[in-house]
Amino acid sequence: MNYGSLDIVRLSFMALQNLGLAAMVGSLLSAWWLRKPGPNWQVRASAKLALVFRVSAVVALLSSIAGFWVHCALMSEAAVLDAWPAVRSMLLNTQFGHIWAMGAGLLLCMVVLSFKRTRRATIPVQPLMWLAFAGVALAKSNAGHPVDAGFLSLPVWVDWVHLLAVSSWVGMVLMSAYIVSPGMLHARPTELSLGASYVQAMSDAATFALITLFLTGAFNGWRGVNAPENVFGSSYGLVLVFKLVLVLVAAALGGHNRFFEMPALLASLRGSSSDMQKRRLTRFTTVLHIESWVLIGVIAIATVLVSSPLPGTE
Fold first, then answer.
1. Where are the domains of the chain?
2. Distance separating alpha carbons of residues 102 and 104, to the nearest angstrom
3. pTM for this structure?
């Protein structure tokens, strides 16, 4: 598995797109959990989530376009600046190009809708955003290894669920660590009852996403390696093992927060001194920060995995 400079650029754009998609899902989930009218910290957090969603949608769209352009340049062995004929041919004549165009079109719709004005500072038309995101994820699943089994085949749907699960997990950890928890740290002690509900909802959703991720990942991984000897005997298998290790590390961090930090945090948020609340919340948020960086690594390795040749095709 040898990557040239253009391959690395393409993978970088793909990873950036995946990170943007995860941030979009995390923003949508967090905005839903904070949807009820509440104190000032919640209003500020909701406004920041709307901004993060808008910026992430733009980043995901631009990264997708740039990655597709570089991909076409690589396929045609043309210079990047001279790749338009290859791009046009890919869009008009290939299933890959058609699927990419549908996904990019849905992303563009999300970008446009994200600028729609609302009475409250929140993400607009959220049900439509969820539907559009589901379409984007399905387009991505139909453009990877699973489509070898056929358009909209069982492996495609499993990969779709896997993508939704990993995007949800990464996104909610990012939003909790860098948007919601910092807002809670600056809130009055009497304003944090909703914060307790948010932490509980986030933890429950992360647990469900992790279980889904392991189940769908096991299906995808075994289908990819196809034989035990390919786990450590192929570049695809080695990248898969590395991804699994990072997922297990992130899962351990999440488990630590859920079973050791969260019970005391919830108790303090529902009624305790300001110092105790901040101490518990700081410990919880610190673990989230570490988990978020591990999960960014998962996104990067998953991007490499999707682009790695399957065993027997290297």
1. 5-307
2. 5
3. 0.94
